[in-house]
Structure formats: structure tokens, C-alpha cells
Amino acid sequence: MVKQDVLKKCISVSGVFLMLASLCSCGLDQDKEAVEKIDRFSGKTVGVVLAWDSDYALTPRKDIELQRYDAMPDMVMALQHDRIDAMALDEITAKSVIFMIQGIEIVQPGYGSFGYVAAFNPKYKDLCDDYDQFLSEYIKTEEYADLQRRIAEYDGIDFEERKIKPTGTGMTLRLACNEAGFPSTYLDPVSNEWAGFDYEPLITWANDRNYKIEITGTVSSDSMMGLSKGRYDVAIGYINELYEDDFNNFDIVHSIPINHLTNYFMVKTDEGISASDEFYDEYE
To answer: Does position 174 have pLDDT exceeding 50, yes or no?
Structure first.
């Protein structure tokens, strides 16, 4: 009986190890497949929009020849006429343009991971540190988990926004928001209220600390310059953690990154590319 019991245990343990080995092998195969899909662009020419997220993310890859464009329609035209093998965009933008352009597709999985930050005037480093402290707790909350769900479910058209109004009455902070930052920061045309996945945590922090917020809608380049020149105290809206050179050049401090996303390679399908008028209105 003892020998039979021992034998049964050995068979049982053996089975467990075989099962684990199988699972590990499956995981390795999936990882290998993911790497192969990304590495299929090694030695290829990939288009990016100058100084956009994917430009910063792919610059370190010396095995890819990057072709930089000033405007996305030029990049799409280059893909259409086979002057580039693929184009690369951040996850949010890729999801958006896929509905405006027929004949392109996203190649899964995404490449890399990056987060977005709030940028502060250097004289407010103490506020930046306080925001970091707030975020270190905020990312553990159900509120942040729900925000991540809504970001993941963004389909390129609709974002499930949560309206948060500034309620602080204390020290005034001049906040620069990227007007073209949907769904990171944007002014809802119906309610005329600001919203977005970078807006929510910043305003939650400001309300918690009783800071009065004065919002200026602007563009990303003006946000950086305005922080450097003292016109703004803090800025949000598609400010990528990868913009380290810009932060250094403008002597800007920034928060820890949150809302991590990825970049997608996009290729032409056999159908041929056809872009809508909405695409040109949005990106020209």
C-alpha cells in the first residue's frame, strides 16, 4: 500500500510538472510569436509623424529606418504608394484613424509601453512632488481601475468620460490643457466642460488640495513654452514621459507617468488606401 501511494504521488507530481511545462511552453510560444510580429519590421522603412509619441518610442531602434513626416496625410500617402513599409502611431491615435482610413490595419501586439505625465513650472516642484504622492495612492483605487477600463474600451470614436468640475477655492493654479487632446484632455462641445483621462486625476488632486483651477485651452507646444515662461503653472494633455529632452530644454519638471499605452505598427491591406474627408479635416 505504501509503495502504491508513493507511486500515485509520483505520478501526480509528474503530471503537475508536465502541465506546468506545457503552460510555460505555451507562454513562451506566445511571447515568441509576439516578438516575431514586431521584428517583422526589422530592416524595414517605417513612417512616423515628427516628434509624435511613436517617433520618440522608435528612435532607439537602429534596425528600423524611420521616415519622419510633418503631417499624417503625407505619411498615409507614402504608405499608399509603397514609399514606406508601415507607419507607426500611438495606441489612441491608431484607434482613431482606423475609422477614417480604409485599407490599413493595426498589427498586434503593440510595441513598447509609455505613460503620460503632468508638466509643472519648475518653481512648483513641491507641487509636482505632492502630485506624485497623490498619484502613488490614486493608482491603487477603484477610481483609477475604472479609468483604465474606460481607456482600454476606447474604440477610436467614443470615450466614456467622467465629468469632474474644479471646486477648489484656495491658491490659484493656471492649467494649460491640450485642446486637440481627445480623449486625454478636451472641451466637450455639448456641455462646454473639460474632460479626459489625463484631466480626471489632475482635477481630483486639485480638488482634494483645494487648489483653484483656471484652465486655458491651447496646443502642446504652447503648453511647454508657457510653463517655461511662467504663463502656466501646470499642463496636461498627451504629454508623454518620453519627452525628456523637451523637459530638459525648457527646464520643466513632471509627474510620475500614469495611463500607460503602447504604439502600433500599421500596414496597408490589399484593398488599397482611401481616407475620408474627416481625416484630412482632423490632421491636415
So the answer is: yes
Contact (Cβ atoms closer than 8 angstroms) between residue 198 and residue 162: no
CATH, range 45-112+264-283? 3.40.190
Average pLDDT of every residue of the chain: 87
Cα 136 from Cα 145, distance rounded (Å):
13
Residue 6, H or E segment:
helix 2-39
Q: Beta partners for 248? A: none
**Length of the chain in terms of residues written:** 284
Contact 88, 58 (CB under 8 A): yes
Q: Which residues sit opposite 176 in a β-bridge?
A: 216, 235
- The dihedral through the CA atoms of 126, 202, 262, 28 has a sign that is positive
Nearest CA to 135 out of 241, 229, 245 is that of 241
Contact indicator for 266, 107 with CB cutoff of 8 Å: yes
Q: In the CATH hierarchy, which fold is given to the domain comprising 118-256?
A: D-Maltodextrin-Binding Protein; domain 2 (3.40.190)
Closest CA to 38 of 242, 267, 280, 215: 267
Q: Which amino acid, one-letter code, is at 235?
A: A
CA-based angle 193:198:203, to the nearest 5? 60
For residue 35, is pLDDT > 70?
Answer: no
